[in-house]
Design a protein that fits this description.
Blueprint lengths: L2 E10 L4 E8 L5 E8 L3 E6 L5 E9 L4 E5 L2 E3 L7 H13 L2 E12 L8 E11 L12 E6 H10 L5 H16 L3
Helix pairs in contact: 2-3
């Protein structure tokens, strides 16, 4: 365990909050920890009846290119229920609503410098509607066979970590026959 000695706020933005802490290590030495506080998020793997995945393609500014991903989004407020957030994000980004959701667990995306947690859900028995993306989101919908998406995760064509983990968790959950 590390003991906090001093904490400094470096930046507080709309999405991210950056801090710099001085800590005392187990061995008695002092060190600095710079990290990002994140409100948390959800990711949804929407599966159609024919084992096709509803995916989103969007430009990601920090890496300068489009990525093929599962729908996802951050919590709108502290304490928001992850399932309610998942329902909202699926509808906003794809237009789909699901009759059945299965919680697949959560991930720490980058624990070396962020506290971000993403809760992952499988969404089934989908009903199509109209997407309602945020005004700063330009999203293209792509529907792909889960085997093709899994192969893209393995080959490196899909590089988004929440998508890779969500697809793997979904694939093995569906193969297990669990409900």
């Amino acid at each position: 365990m590390e003991k906090l000695l001093k904490s400094q706020e470096i930046f507080k933005g709309v999405l991210l909050h950056v801090k710099k802490d001085e800590v005392l290590l187990e061995n008695g030495r002092k060190s600095t920890r710079e990290y990002v506080l994140h409100p948390g998020a959800v990711a949804v793997v929407p599966i159609l009846d024919d084992n096709k995945v509803v995916m989103v393609k969007q430009y990601r500014y920090p890496i300068g290119r489009e990525l093929l991903e599962i729908p996802a989004g951050k919590f709108d407020f502290k304490g928001e229920d992850p399932l309610e957030c998942a329902k909202r994000e699926l509808k906003e980004e794809t237009g789909f609503q699901a009759k059945d959701y299965t919680y697949l667990g959560y991930i720490h995306t980058t624990p070396g410098f962020s506290n971000e947690v993403i809760y992952i859900y499988l969404a089934r028995n989908l009903v199509k509607g109209d997407a309602e993306p945020d005004e700063d989101e330009i999203i293209k919908i792509e529907v792909k066979d889960i085997e093709e998406v899994l192969e893209k995760c393995i080959s490196g064509d899909i590089t988004d970590s929440k998508t890779i983990i969500g697809i793997f968790k979904t694939y093995f959950f569906l193969r297990s026959g669990k409900e």
